[in-house]
User: Which sequence fits this backbone?
């Protein structure tokens, strides 16, 4: 009887973690779009988010250090600037352009266009030899490309400037996630824990995005009545409060992804991401009033088919050819979290190990 009970506990835990991930992922998309309606400084907003993520990551690292009794990794300046800087700059540009695009396009067009990031991730994975070429990848590229064309074809709410921003963000996102995978796979760096990765990335991301912020928003923000030329304290506090909520959501998104991967698997996160896109589109059409034609919906379905095929291929080849990436034990102290230790594993570790040996290791992949 232990196995069915433990299986039920695992299923409930997985559903809870997926919903936790959906809350932050979908929440920050709609929140940033809502905020951009009255606050037209997306790059400044991103800088505030990066600052909050860095502070929360530092607090989380300190909590983990107190819990495990082991010091957290701190990279030297030479390694930090040489190894981490390219990933940080690519990540900053990806996030900055994505937030910037909300000034011009709808959530639905953003969601569907951003799904093309799989193309660029796949491309750079082949360039860096993280992915083995196979004929099915051509079908993946064709499905996503054709689907993206149908998504934007005769769209009633299409905006070229915003579309180019998202497409550029997707391209840079391909570089970002490829470099992130390389960064986290290097055992000598010790950044396998995403909390440590987030902590080290934020300062360089801030510095990388700051010149672009000064060039585009510096002057207009300095004369804005929402911040620097505010006439009432309540207006200033409200602006800071709304920006801070976005920063907390951004940190929660990264943290929820970490929880989902470390407690289940990277495949669970990939599949959850596909359904998340569908949920986002449905909410955008019903809540935000976005308009999509049947052709746009069909194009998005074709895109999802390509993404699903890509996920299936990665799963198939990882099982039949052996893992090509560095493996981390899910029971490793690096991945143990105080919040989960008392709930997810109370009174059932030995039965879980006997029932399911596949949870012994989780593969870190890019999404």
Assistant:
């Amino acid at each position: 009887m232990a196995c069915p009970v433990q299986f039920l506990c695992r299923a409930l835990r997985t559903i809870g973690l997926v919903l936790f991930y959906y809350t932050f992922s979908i929440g920050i998309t709609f929140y940033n779009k809502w905020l951009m309606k009255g606050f037209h400084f997306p790059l400044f907003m991103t800088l505030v988010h990066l600052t909050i993520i860095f502070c929360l990551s530092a607090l989380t690292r300190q909590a983990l250090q107190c819990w495990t009794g082991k010091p957290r990794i701190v990279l030297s300046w030479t390694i930090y600037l040489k190894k981490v800087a390219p990933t940080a700059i690519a990540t900053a540009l990806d996030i900055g352009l994505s937030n910037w695009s909300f000034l011009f396009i709808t959530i639905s067009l953003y969601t569907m266009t951003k799904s093309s990031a799989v193309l660029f991730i796949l491309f750079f994975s082949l360039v860096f030899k993280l992915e083995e070429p196979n004929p099915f990848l051509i079908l993946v590229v064709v499905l996503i490309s054709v689907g993206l064309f149908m998504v934007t074809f005769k769209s009633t709410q299409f905006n070229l400037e915003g579309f180019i921003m998202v497409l550029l963000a997707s391209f840079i996102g391909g570089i970002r996630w490829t470099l992130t995978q390389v960064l986290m796979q290097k055992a000598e760096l010790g950044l396998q824990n995403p909390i440590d990765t987030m902590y080290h990335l934020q300062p360089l991301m801030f510095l990388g995005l700051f010149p672009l912020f000064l060039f585009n928003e510096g002057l207009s923000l300095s004369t804005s009545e929402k911040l620097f030329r505010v006439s009432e304290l309540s207006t200033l506090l409200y602006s800071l409060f709304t920006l801070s909520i976005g920063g907390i959501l951004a940190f929660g998104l990264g943290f929820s992804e970490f929880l989902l991967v470390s407690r289940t698997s990277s495949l669970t996160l990939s599949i959850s991401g596909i359904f998340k896109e569908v949920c986002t589109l449905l909410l955008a059409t019903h809540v935000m009033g976005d308009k999509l034609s049947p052709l746009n919906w069909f194009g998005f379905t074709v895109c999802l088919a390509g993404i699903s095929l890509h996920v299936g291929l990665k799963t198939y080849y990882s099982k039949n050819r052996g893992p090509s990436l560095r493996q981390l034990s899910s029971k490793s102290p690096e991945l143990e979290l105080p919040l989960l230790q008392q709930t997810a594993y109370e009174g059932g570790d030995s039965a879980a190990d006997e029932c399911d040996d596949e949870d012994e290791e989780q593969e870190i992949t890019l999404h």
Notes: Residues 322-367 have pLDDT under 50 and may be disordered. Residues 32-219+235-338 form one domain. The chain has one domain: 32-219+235-338.
